[in-house]
Task: structure prediction
Amino acid sequence: MTEATLKPLTYLVNTAKPLAIDDYIHAGGYQGAAKALHQCTPAQVLDIVKDSSLKGRGGAGFPTGVKWSFVPMFAADDPKAPDNKYLVCNADEMEPGTFKDRLLLEGVPHQLIEAMIIAAYTIGANKAFIFLRGEYHLAAKRLQQAIDEAYQSNWLGSNIQSSNYQLDLHVHTSAGRYICGEETALINALEGKRANPRAKPPFPQVAGLFGKPTIVNNVETLSNLPHILKHGVDWFKQVAPESDAGTKIYGACGRVNTPGLWELPMGATIREVLYEHAGGMKDGLKLKGLLPGGASTDFLLPEHLDTPMDYDSIAKAGSRLGTGGLIVLDDHNCPVAMVLNLLKFFAQESCGWCTPCRDGTPWAVEILSRIEHGQGRLADLDSLAQLCDFMWIGKTHCALAPGAVEPLKSALKYFHDEFEQHIDNGCCPYKGSH
Amino acid sequence: MQIIATIQRDYRDYLSETEIAEIEHEASCLETREAAGIDALKIVQAHRGWISDESLAAIAQLLGISTAQLEGVATFYNLIYRQPVGHYVIHICDSIGCHLSGYDEVLASIKNHLAIDYGQTTEDGMFTLLSNVCLGACDKAPVMKIGQQDYPHLTAENVVIILDELLNNALANTLADSLPDSLPRNSAEQELDHD
Result:
């Protein structure tokens, strides 16, 4: 195995100066797209992606090939064929504690363009968008430069590399709000509307952007495609033989010695990420708990350190892999204050469409704030538990409020003593312990 | 409650030719003119610093949508400023990575140094302070963004030095041009010089 097959997503990353198109091609780039366009039918690429068992890296973990298979396919001369379909790359990275897509966007923009050619070709889309969060200015600049190069080199535009396939690619820079990462909210934002999620069905695969069949995929998910095409399904599965296929970009933040990002075979343990790569806890601090994949995942404890970071194992431990970015809580930071910060985030970012989320998240903030500031009552803990129920899956319009429940509910379970201590003592026991 | 001016001028009397050309370019890449609304707001904001009622009405007219609809969009997205902002808009990350790594101290230092709270602008019009959700730089927390620049690894001390330097730069530029209104209204216009 070489760097190219051990760390396919990141081996060409250069955050100081990303590879220009000629250098990217010289390093083996665009071979995956060439294989798709010249050697495969769209149906064949779909089969390859299905066989690879690639799952979405944006948080939900849905199998990519299955998602694509819901897009209706038509013969070129079918009068029922829609006049367009769309591929949208979700680059609205805003999950707190997550910064992996930024690395790919800033460090190797051509990889994403190549990936989008493969995906768009497979679903029969001739137009694609990169929905980029507004704060990622450097990524916007580098993506646009790479797109311009790709047009000049005929990797975008009409009759790409004499394949008779056409693709136009636009970058949409957003104007904020976490909810835009929800795929139907993102579609509304692309249509110039308020980013409220849509009711499903219809699913975007059938009626999405401008009412046309649309696939929305995360940056990291898409970035796997060139390598799956180039090295094959067997290689992809072999990278992580005991787990889900492929690699994952794991991250760690909080008070660890070397916070950062590492591409590892899917299924690396939490311990490996935290201690071998993030350098363990800073001097004088102990691990108290962690969120394994962003703000909207359940807390795990030190006893879970040997859990492999893949979809099934993390789910068995009671949480979700999410984005794979560890948020590490040390023993000098207050767990109640941490949950308060998380719920403030969700309350602020709620789009306000459905009552459980719009009213439930600020209600939780009010109660948590009272507890953190020593004004809590024991009955508040029951109220919080009840709110977790009111905001759970099936009772809200989208996944934002259930995402808020995950850290809250698990904190109530794992840090119950700390909550009671705040209430009994009438103050935060962690004040002044930084 | 404020009522947005309903007496409508022709948008061409209000928006510059450059603004109109930039907005039309975005609209030409999209399936509907409505879809260019957010781009249009960002374009006008880049030129004028913020979105006034007059800007809002002119953009709505240009795109052929109602002012009320565009107001709904403008007030949904936090990077669209519907009030005047300072020359520098500080977006400090208040999400969990920064919270765990010293955000409270950095924020207190900024508020103390500039004598403003969230949502306020300094009297000299130089700085506006806003919170921002996770800026995607958690490995360099605490972090803030001003214009297109990230400022990583903040402390209560170094953030004061950064703000003072920015202030001095702005004052030096003003003196050099000896024109009080020569500054771009918003540092977001300044080009990146990263690469």
